[in-house]
Specification:
The structure is a homodimer of 281-residue chains. With 281 residues, chain A is α/β, with parallel strands linked by helices. Chain A has one domain: Rossmann fold, CATH 3.40.50.300. Chain A is built from 12 helices and 5 strands. In chain A, helix 2 crosses helix 11. The longest helix of chain A is centred in the N-terminal third of the chain and has 25 residues. The radius of gyration of chain A is 21 Å and the shape is globular.
Chain lengths: 281, 281
Amino acid sequence: MDARKGNPMDTYRVKPGEKIDLDQLNPGSTGAFKGEKEEALAATQKLNAQLEELQERLYAEHKHRLLVVLQGMDTSGKDGVIRSVFEGVNPQGVRVASFKVPTPAELDHDYLWRIHAQVPGRGEIVIFNRSHYEDVLVVRVHELVPEAVWGRRFEQINHFERMLADEGVTILKFFLHIDLDEQKQRFLDRLNDPAKQWKFNPGDLKERALWKAYQKAYEDVLEKTSTPWAPWYIVPANKKWYRNWVISTVLVEALKALEIKLPPVFSEEETASYRAQLAAE
Amino acid sequence: MDARKGNPMDTYRVKPGEKIDLDQLNPGSTGAFKGEKEEALAATQKLNAQLEELQERLYAEHKHRLLVVLQGMDTSGKDGVIRSVFEGVNPQGVRVASFKVPTPAELDHDYLWRIHAQVPGRGEIVIFNRSHYEDVLVVRVHELVPEAVWGRRFEQINHFERMLADEGVTILKFFLHIDLDEQKQRFLDRLNDPAKQWKFNPGDLKERALWKAYQKAYEDVLEKTSTPWAPWYIVPANKKWYRNWVISTVLVEALKALEIKLPPVFSEEETASYRAQLAAE
């Protein structure tokens, strides 16, 4: 499979400072996977099994921490990724932090306060469903604070993430890239299925009307906050199977790169002594 | 299958005030499942699929909350239950709270402080891996506070759980019942497998030496804190497949009993209007 030669995922990784024009990136692409959809599903399942095992080692080692940031427009698949990519993984080692409209108490603090409280501890994987990036996205598009305030946040975020990385957190950020047509179709799917209507929020149509402003805000995020220590990946997300395969691949590669070691075992003498204690009862 | 007639799980549910003698309860029992181990594994898998669907409805409804408390001696299978029973469930709706040795900040507060902070919110399932019950178990056995203090906690806990239940939390508590021989075997399995040695903690042998005191403390917990609003189940846990089947069955029955309704959908007029807005772009 070509996908294993070199690293096709590098295509989706944003280089620091790279200029991004989302209109030029095809959200329907499935280019890095050489094969049919069914093969991709099978490959993703295998990656899921690897992820499960790597998570167990991460948990056992109790040293590294992994932070996964998911961002994207409504219906882009943030919930779907959590369900599909992480569902097989032991819930004890994976935590999801969903950042919704801030509460009054949260608004009484700086925007990174509620974020910092949720970063992963040793051995833990934490998934951010939305994140501090909303404070340079929705906050910017709706002019909730002046540009002088949100404008300096890119650098603040880079410094914050750098500190986390220096302290041992692996950070991977995924922008789920869909287009207007795909979003329309997904809204219609929700409206047309009574079992899915609860997922549809009329307010989402107002956000959709601001699509261009959001894309511009996302381009700035991607250009200014993709760093060596906390890279952004732009994931073509019109096709769910492809989106899941890309993210699973990046996660498994990143965890493998940590070269996780199981904690030191006991010496033969120690082991024998514990066995003897049990036998002597 | 006989197991579906009446409710065999009632056998394991402790009646309020019931006298418990753990020595009289067989931890190796598999009595409520009429069939072979393989059939039980298949049945558990079906229950897992049901649990997955019920969790999604719980999350969508955003009303009920489920608190699952897991207690048991070392190696009794608390981690195993989390992995096996909940692994297929969407991590976004399930959260695990593990209560270890309290931190200095936690010790500066009452014993329910750290517990209260972790109870489930609407639509959420939270699993307590150990819990406030440690404050009448390890705390009692090691005499960390005088009897006058731990002795009044049973009633305090009942009041606390009653408040939670009144406010809409469904509470299910499971004591994973194994015997000394089974624990010895599981310790040896850990010692004999280098990939599992990290799970063995030499301090566990000291706790094992206090087995009788712990069993007595558990009997008091089961007798005094199994209430109509927060019942205890004594789960025969020597056989992992049986333990998982029992807990899955109780969980699925409890969630079904909530008669979870999906949130109200839009009227036909509303749906048509949203469709029109999308079409008119």
